[in-house]
Design goal:
single chain; about 290 residues; mainly alpha; globular; disordered N terminus
Length: about 290
């Protein structure tokens, strides 16, 4: 994101306390964008020959950079849309806003948006290709773990196991891992797993580059860590959110909750990353 773009978005982190109307305006902006993106992700968009993104795709056409970036966009939209639906449902029914469930869904949006942003917004092609290959390797590795555990489970009969092996049940993942490993060995750069936290941090660096970049990156990284606490059900991590819990007369944690402004603020954190990823997708898929 350019310095100007980052500055234009600084209202999401204003030092002055926003009013209820301000929060509603931010939510409306997110809803409007989601309405547009929701329709777009229904059909994958083609990458044009001769484009910057098409050049990135040539290194590993079996799982190209554009496919992984589009998947990130799709997951970002789906989870942010799911967070919005969950928030509105709880408000309309006058129910408490459940923090762990709400922030768990939002965490998926941040991961998807960050994957897309990292693959699209990183300036150097060699870095983009390295990230794409490491993400692809993790895709194949995770599939192999799943299929291998499935085929070797005690509930699977020998006949079913042999039939699946004969149909190359493990083959795609095995060949994919080896192919990507070989490509990474030919290129300069890291070859190890690109862990999710590193992806979040790297994406925040390429998205937020203005005068307020440190504050915006801090917001992204803290939401990722707090969201991890929500998704994994960690007691102490959930206590670090503002207005997260109350205590009973004995001083024990009695009830966890979230406020509408706080959820919207964290949705805006994800929205900025997703918005920038979509902007660069448009620029890089055409010659």
């Amino acid at each position: 994101m350019s310095k100007g773009a980052s500055s234009r978005n600084q209202d999401a982190y204003s030092s002055q306390a926003p009013t209820e109307e301000d929060w509603d305006a931010r939510l409306t902006r997110i809803k409007t964008a989601l309405g547009y993106w929701r329709e777009r992700v229904k059909s994958p968009e083609n990458v044009m020959s001769g484009s910057s993104l098409a050049a990135d795709d040539q290194i590993h056409p079996e799982m190209p950079c554009s496919q992984l970036a589009w998947w990130g966009l799709s997951m970002g939209v789906e989870h942010l849309d799911g967070t919005l639906s969950l928030l509105e449902h709880q408000i309309e029914r006058e129910k408490p806003i459940l923090p762990a469930a709400t922030y768990t869904v939002l965490r998926g949006a941040l991961l998807g948006a960050s994957q897309a942003a990292l693959l699209l917004c990183t300036p150097r092609r060699t870095d983009r290709i390295n990230y794409a290959l490491r993400i692809a390797h993790e895709e194949y590795r995770q599939e192999f773990i799943f299929t291998n555990a499935t085929i070797n489970h005690g509930a699977v009969s020998d006949a079913e196991r042999q039939s699946a092996l004969g149909e190359d049940f493990l083959g795609r993942a095995e060949r994919g891992k080896e192919r990507v490993k070989a490509l990474l060995a030919e290129l300069d750069g890291p070859t190890g797993k690109l862990v999710d936290t590193e992806m979040i941090e790297l994406a925040a660096k390429v998205v937020h580059r203005g005068e307020d970049a440190d504050l915006l990156r801090f917001g992204v990284e803290m939401e990722w860590r707090l969201g991890s606490g929500s998704s994994h059900g960690r007691l102490l991590m959930n206590t670090h959110r503002p207005q997260a819990f109350t205590r009973n007369d004995e001083g024990n944690t009695a009830y966890f909750s979230a406020s509408k402004p706080m959820v919207i603020q964290q949705m805006a954190t994800v929205f900025l990353t997703l918005q920038e990823a979509w902007r660069i997708w448009e620029l890089r898929r055409f010659p």
